[in-house]
Write a structure and sequence with these properties.
Blueprint (H helix, E strand, L loop, with lengths): L3 H40 L66 E3 L6 E3 L3 H13 L5 E4 L4 H16 L6 H8 L16 E5 L13 H10 L5 E5 L4 H4 L3 E7 L2 H10 L3 H6 L3
Antiparallel strand pairs: 1-2, 3-4, 4-6, 5-6
């Protein structure tokens, strides 16, 4: 005959045994499920060391993260932007503006434009002459208002304008210089100094204003300039980029670049940024 305390001990043993058996069964079931998942993963392509599911069109599990393993992110693919296969370090792409001072740069050689007092880079003169003749054939009378301006001439022009602004003492000369920068190019920053720029009007003007120039001529020049390798250097819509709005100012860059620039409504600065 069992005593009560002995019965309680036997019952406790049975309970502990039952708990142990249940825990063991749970562990075995867990191991069994892990083996099944591992088997299916292997069939679907496996897991690589980075913690990502192996590549393959049948990988239905997607990316699987493994704790403690750093996954390597895929690099962002930059969109491919078409641009002409040209060398922008070539002479026809020299950039002169407030951010790119070309110092005392001068073209290798300049020639007179049709015997006038205006000069142009000899390497592009034939394109300019064809451009002018094209305008004539269209019934216009184009006039070369301004072409090549060397560094010393631009310096003279700029200093003269600054002196005019400072005259009378309203502004100091330093203040006048800053104001002059907004109305004329600082020496070394003028597009005309490249020898590849021209201001084309319908006749001589003492000062330029698009309101005075034949609008039909300006429209024809902008529409056809790329055919001769020229671009509208300072479009109105790009004034925030270039600093200027001059519908009479055209710049030679070659036909390939000119067609690309004009078709897409770019300015020279934006075009050159595509190659940086």
């Amino acid at each position: 005959m069992d005593f009560p305390h002995i019965k309680r001990e036997k019952e406790a043993v049975r309970v502990r045994t039952r708990h142990i058996l249940m825990s063991f069964a749970f562990i075995m079931l867990t191991i069994f499920l892990i083996l099944i998942i591992a088997s299916r993963t292997s069939e679907a392509g496996g897991i690589n060391l980075s913690g990502q599911a192996a590549a393959g069109p049948d990988n239905a599990l997607g990316d699987i993260s493994i704790p403690g393993v750093t996954q390597t992110p895929e690099p962002t693919v930059r969109p491919t932007v078409y641009r002409p296969d040209i060398d922008v370090s070539s002479w026809e792409f020299i950039l002169a503006n407030s951010e790119h001072n070309i110092g005392t740069y001068a073209p290798e050689q300049t020639v007179s434009i049709e015997g006038t007092a205006q000069y142009f880079d000899s390497r592009a003169i034939d394109y300019l002459l064809a451009f002018i003749q094209g305008a004539r054939d269209a019934g216009f009378t184009p006039y070369i208002m301004t072409a090549y301006i060397n560094y010393s001439s631009q310096e003279y022009i700029f200093n003269g304008r600054a002196s005019q602004i400072a005259w009378g003492g309203t502004y100091t000369y330093e203040e006048a210089v800053e104001i002059a920068r907004t109305v004329t190019s600082y020496p070394g920053t003028s597009d005309h100094q490249t020898g590849l720029a021209v201001d084309i009007t319908d006749r001589y003007y003492s000062s330029l204003s698009s309101a005075d120039i034949d609008e039909d001529l300006l429209n024809w020049l902008a529409e056809h300039c790329a055919e001769y390798g020229f671009i509208l250097r300072y479009p109105a819509l790009k004034e925030s980029v270039t600093g200027w709005n001059e519908p009479w100012h055209f710049r030679y860059v070659g036909t390939t670049a000119a067609e690309y620039i004009m078709e897409r409504g770019l300015c020279l600065e934006e075009f050159l940024e595509l190659y940086e």
